[in-house]
């Protein structure tokens, strides 16, 4: 029997806020601290008031005090034009921080560089100063066009924000800097002007992939003069998306070389581990790193907060904690009453809307003027709505926002006193990025991480060293993934015929792929080059943000209105017939899933239940790439084929999670060839661990669940990016085996990272299970929200003994990357 859960797509049941009355109340007289001009409440005082009362104080598991840090100034390199320095001074910056000056020095020497410093450390100015200076130099050339620069951001909103920042900075410089946004929202009539005249073009990887590179002859004058490529928030380019962007950048370098240019890459990142290594893998060129942050920082008080247990019981009678959503709404309410300007970061759009709504309702009981000072902020809002919210927060008109990560990336939100993070955002880099939104003017700030009922969150709030004493994660991506590489080779051949010297640029896997692309008649070799010969656009072969396959369109049946899309890989589990589908705060029932036309027809409804898909999974080993002994156990990494079939779905009550019924489904099986890490144990080890045959399945299953929940601590992934299977006797290994695999065709680098950090990863997994206060297993340790087997069987105590025995044989040094 195999116990498994899918990497992406099982619909997470809507969790209850609470079935008990709120255990505290807010009072204007007791808690509100009127904000006086220029006076901000002390973060320690604010936290003290939040934790007043016995029930509240026990929720804080750890408080970290980060002392203030003075800034370190330097001088701009002499090659920066005086007009640029004067423009910078005009906005109130007399001298740069040390890391800004060092970044500019590398850029002016023609060396690619990544600046990986804290939030609000001035990374934008670090690359803008040399870029603007170079563009001004070029504007004086007789040719007129001069040097050009390209800015890439992961979101259109961030590019638009950067455009406004550049406009404010360059106003005194006259017409020498012609900055323009070029993305899917750019009107057709403006696009020709951008191509012909702009010398600083702000866009995103999607537009570069689908628009600029396929139409490179129309961009020839811009590309011929391209001096710099700025890659902002480069830590977001990870996993399959990062792997696609890496190949897009190789295509850009190739086309630029055709026009005689070789641009310098300037990358900005949140604090990251080995940023130069990640930046080199992303761009394919050597990259220097600047990691010493010269900017000042005010005191930060960082609290770890664990919601209490409720009287509710979930699957298999497991205890259930109060949700992070409900707890964060309470904190936002209390902070608003204190006059503390706050952003609460939430993982979902619906969660942001819900927290804002709850806080507004509770504030109305205190003071009718307060609800209007709380709002939600998420993707999907119109640009003018976002700008209005940002302005209101700046001015103090708004006291609080409940926001998705749409506010995380680079938005310059000053004047905040506190940040509440509703659930660990997946990586330490994102956590610090979000926490850094408070205290951005150098004053003190409060940050609170509210744990979800999840193994990783629970582990972190009880192991603060994992957050505060460890470096942030490495950015994981795999440009050599053949499922990623193949469509980009076709796109490159459509842009310019591929030659033998080009193959090295795209990586070592290219040479093996070329014959396969010829056999599939995607490419044809003529003379010394490969050509794209089909009529359709090669760039349309892949969606760089998707996992492969045509996305399924979600269409409202009554109106024909397109609501959105779902990745093909997730369609079977999220938009099957009868599924409850959430979109922008509204719920819909799926009436029909047409796999041939990739369409799911839905109708708006408000059923009192959520749906969870059940599935069966088989996994076979295709190739063992690496295998090392752990005593009698074996740790392996290699290629696998996963066959999954969704066979039914459960309907669960929204409040209690009680199962209302199960409905059968008739969906075809799906196969996935990907990369996996797996470990085996022997009969002697089972005997040593006192894991009896009847407990074996539950022990393996529990270890699998917990290890998937903990892996995001070691690899930049979400638990929904990976899947797992545990089998008491696997036909390929003939031993009890636990697999953890990447949920993307060809792999995304997560399983490989797990293999190379296996000793620490599995030790943290064992610890997470062992320290959980539940008796037999719960969502905080071994239960999974996406388990296709209903979290049955699970054996917590046997899993601890099994992992203890497994780790006893682990080598002293973890395996090193090849």
Helix content: 25-40%
Number of helices: 27
Q: Would you tell me the overall average pLDDT?
A: 86
Which spans of ≥5 residues are poorly predicted at pLDDT below 50? 1-38, 814-818
Choose one word for the global shape. Answer: globular
- What percent strand? 15-25%
What is the CA-CA span between the terminal residues? 34 Å
Q: Mind telling me the C-alpha Rg?
A: 27 Å
Could you say which structural class the secondary elements and strand pairing correspond to? alpha/beta
Largest sheet data: 7 strands, antiparallel
Number of strands: 31
Protein name: DEAD/DEAH box helicase
GO molecular function: helicase activity
Domain Helicase ATP-binding: 104-290
Pfam families: DEAD, Helicase_C, MZB, WHD_HRQ1
Throw out a few tags for this protein.
single chain; 818 residues; alpha/beta; 7-stranded antiparallel sheet; 7-stranded mixed sheet; 27 helices; globular; disordered N terminus
Q: What would your notes on this structure say?
A:
The protein has 818 residues and is an alpha/beta fold. It is 34% helix and 23% strand. Helix 13 (324-337) crosses helix 14 (349-364) and helix 24 (693-710) packs across helix 26. The longest helix is centred in the N-terminal third of the chain and has 20 residues, at 239-258. The radius of gyration is 27 Å and the shape is globular. The chain starts with a strand and ends in a 10-residue tail after the last helix. Residues 1-38 and 814-818 have low confidence and may be disordered.
């Amino acid at each position: 029997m195999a116990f498994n859960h899918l990497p992406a797509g099982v619909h997470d049941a809507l969790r209850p806020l609470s079935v008990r009355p709120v255990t505290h109340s807010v009072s204007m007289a007791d808690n509100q601290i009127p904000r006086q001009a220029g006076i901000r409440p002390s973060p320690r005082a604010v936290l003290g008031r939040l934790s007043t009362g016995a029930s509240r104080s026990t929720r804080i598991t750890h408080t970290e005090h980060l002392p203030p840090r003075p800034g370190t100034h330097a001088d701009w390199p002499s090659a920066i034009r005086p007009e640029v320095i004067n423009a910078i001074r005009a906005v109130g910056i007399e001298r740069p921080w040390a890391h800004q000056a060092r970044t500019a020095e590398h850029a002016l020497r023609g060396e690619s560089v990544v600046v990986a410093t804290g939030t609000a450390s001035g990374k934008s100015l670090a690359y803008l100063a040399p870029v603007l200076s170079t563009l001004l130099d070029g504007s004086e050339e007789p040719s007129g066009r001069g040097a050009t620069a390209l800015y890439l951001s992961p979101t259109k909103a961030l590019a638009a924000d950067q455009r406004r920042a550049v406009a404010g900075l360059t106003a005194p410089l006259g017409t020498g800097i012609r900055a323009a946004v070029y993305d899917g929202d750019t009107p057709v009539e403006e696009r020709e002007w951008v191509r012909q005249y702009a010398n600083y073009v702000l866009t995103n990887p999607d537009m570069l992939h689908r628009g600029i590179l396929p139409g490179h002859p129309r961009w020839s004058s811009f590309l011929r003069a391209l001096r710099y490529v700025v890659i902002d928030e480069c830590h977001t380019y990870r996993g399959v998306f990062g792997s696609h962007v890496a190949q897009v950048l190789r295509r850009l370098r190739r086309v630029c070389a055709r026009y005689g240019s070789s641009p310098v890459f300037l990358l900005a990142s949140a604090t990251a581990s080995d940023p130069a290594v990640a930046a080199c893998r992303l761009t394919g060129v050597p990259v220097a790193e600047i990691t010493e942050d010269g900017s000042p920082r005010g005191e930060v008080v960082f609290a770890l907060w664990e919601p209490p247990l409720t009287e509710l019981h979930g699957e298999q009678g497991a205890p259930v904690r109060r949700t992070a959503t409900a707890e964060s709404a309470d904190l936002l309410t209390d902070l608003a009453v204190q006059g503390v300007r706050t952003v609460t970061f939430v993982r979902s759009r619906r969660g942001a809307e819900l927290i804002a709504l709850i806080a507004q309702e509770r504030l109305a009981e205190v003071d009718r003027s307060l609800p209007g000072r709380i709002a939600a902020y998420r993707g999907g809002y119109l640009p003018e709505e976002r700008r209005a919210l940002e302005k209101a927060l700046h001015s103090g008109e708004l006291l609080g926002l409940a926001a998705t990560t749409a506010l995380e990336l680079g938005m310059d939100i000053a004047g905040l006193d506190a940040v509440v993070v509703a659930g660990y955002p997946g990586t330490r880099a994102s956590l610090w990025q979000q926490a850094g939104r408070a205290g951005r003017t150098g004053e003190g700030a409060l940050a609170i991480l509210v744990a979800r009922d999840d193994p990783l969150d629970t582990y972190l709030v009880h192991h603060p060293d994992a957050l505060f004493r460890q470096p942030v994660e490495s950015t994981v991506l795999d440009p050599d993934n053949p499922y990623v590489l193949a469509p980009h080779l076709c796109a490159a051949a459509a842009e310019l015929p591929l030659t033998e010297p080009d193959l090295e640029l795209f990586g070592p896997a290219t040479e093996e792929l070329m014959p396969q692309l010829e056999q599939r008649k995607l490419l044809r070799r003529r003379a010394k080059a490969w050509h794209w010969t089909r009529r359709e656009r090669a760039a349309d072969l892949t969606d760089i943000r998707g996992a492969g396959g045509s996305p399924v369109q979600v269409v409202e049946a009554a109106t024909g209105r397109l609501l959105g899309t779902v990745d093909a890989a997730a369609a079977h589990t999220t938009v099957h017939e009868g599924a409850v589908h959430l979109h922008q705060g509204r719920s819909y029932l799926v009436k029909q899933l047409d796999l041939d036309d990739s369409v799911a027809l839905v109708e708006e409804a408000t059923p009192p239940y959520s749906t969870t898909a059940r599935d069966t999974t088989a996994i076979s080993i295709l190739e063992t790439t690496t295998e090392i002994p752990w005593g009698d156990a074996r740790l392996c990494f290699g290629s696998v084929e996963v066959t999954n079939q969704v066979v039914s779905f459960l309907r669960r009550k929204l409040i209690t999670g009680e199962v209302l019924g199960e409905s059968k489904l008739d969906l075809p099986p799906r196969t996935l060839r990907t990369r996996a890490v797996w470990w085996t144990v022997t009969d002697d080890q089972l005997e040593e661990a006192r894991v009896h045959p009847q407990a074996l399945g539950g022990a393996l299953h529990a270890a699998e669940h917990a290890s998937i929940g903990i892996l995001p601590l070691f690899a930049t992934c979400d638990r929904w990016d990976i899947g797992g299977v545990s089998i008491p006797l696997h036909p390929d290994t003939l031993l009890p085996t636990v697999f953890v695999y990447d949920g993307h065709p060809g792999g995304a680098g997560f399983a490989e990272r797990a293999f190379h950090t296996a000793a620490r990863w599995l030790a943290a997994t064992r610890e997470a299970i062992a320290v959980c206060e539940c008796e037999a297993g719960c969502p905080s340790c071994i239960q999974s929200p996406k388990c296709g087997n209903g979290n049955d069987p699970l054996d917590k105590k046997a899993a601890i003994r099994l992992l203890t025995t497994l780790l006893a044989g682990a080598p002293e040094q973890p395996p090193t990357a090849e």
